[in-house]
Amino acid sequence: MKYIITFIGCLSLSFTFAQNINWSSQDQKQNNFIYLNKGFDYGLTVQLGYAYQLNLFNQTLITADISVPMGKDFFDDYKGRLTMHSTIFSFGDFTMSGKIAGIARRYETKLVRINNFGAEMTAILGYYKPKFHIAAEFGFDKAISTHLKHQGLLKENFPEITDGWFVPTGGNFNYGIQASKTIGQRFELSLRLGTTSAEKGGPDALLPVYGVFGLLFRL
Fold it and tell me: Which residues of 123-138 are buried (b: 16+ CB within 10 A; e: fewer)?
């Protein structure tokens, strides 16, 4: 019941856009894409991204995006990604693809400023038609190296606390489904739903779910 209420809350509060691709609807002449994100990804965020399709032996996208929280200080925190997304194999209308991304993140409170660098890997298996797709996804997001800079209030109460880099730090698995609908020749709407869990039995996120609605525009 708790997860059902959380899902409904996430979807009613906002939608998150994401770079979801229907491989069967791609036109080899349309190599440039823009996508816009808004929604819940460990918090309420907005995201803007760009993708370029490489004409290789398989379908491959190189993407870059940045997301920021929907708070009072718009750019005090951020998450930037550089991603390669490629098809691995196809059997009829079924396609498996994989994504690997490098990630840079920043998060600041009155107690601490956190910067970390990490990686994200995702496997996607789905049914793809020119006008729609539906797929299952499994991914892992790892913060490989994290720098902590503690603020004055925390240092006043714990003067022995140490700043610096810590390796490695935490990671989260994600499990979900995604779907899309192609509109005309240039637009694609997509939806992702899923849950997350911390590695090695660590504490899960406050809301260990995500709900994602995506808009992609082909140039």
Answer: ebebebeeebbebebe
Distance CA 31, CA 46 (A): 24
Report the C-alpha gap between 30 and 16 in whole angstroms: 24
- Where does residue 42 fall: left (phi above 0), alpha (psi -120 to 50 degrees), or beta otherwise? left
Structure confidence by residue, pLDDT tens digits, 190-216: 888 899 999 988 888 888 988 878 899
Whole-structure pTM value: 0.84
CA distance 34 to 19: 9
Domains annotated on the chain, with CATH: 2-218 (2.40.160)
Tell me which residue of 46, 53, 161 sits closest to 111, measured CA to CA. 161
Select from 116, 41, 50 the least CA-distant residue to 83: 50
Identify the band that residue 28 occupies on the pLDDT scale cut at 50, 70 and 90. low
DSSP state letters, the chain: -HHHHHHHHHHHH--B------GGG--TT--EEEEEEEEESSSEEEEEEEEEEEESSSEEEEEEEEEEESSSSTTSSEEEEEEEEEEEEEETTEEEEEEEEEEEEEEE-SSEEEEEEEEEEEEEEEEEETTEEEEEEEEEEEEEEEEEEE-HHHHHH-TT---EEESS--EEEEEEEEEEEEETTTEEEEEEEEEEEEGGG-PPPSS-EEEEEEEEEE-
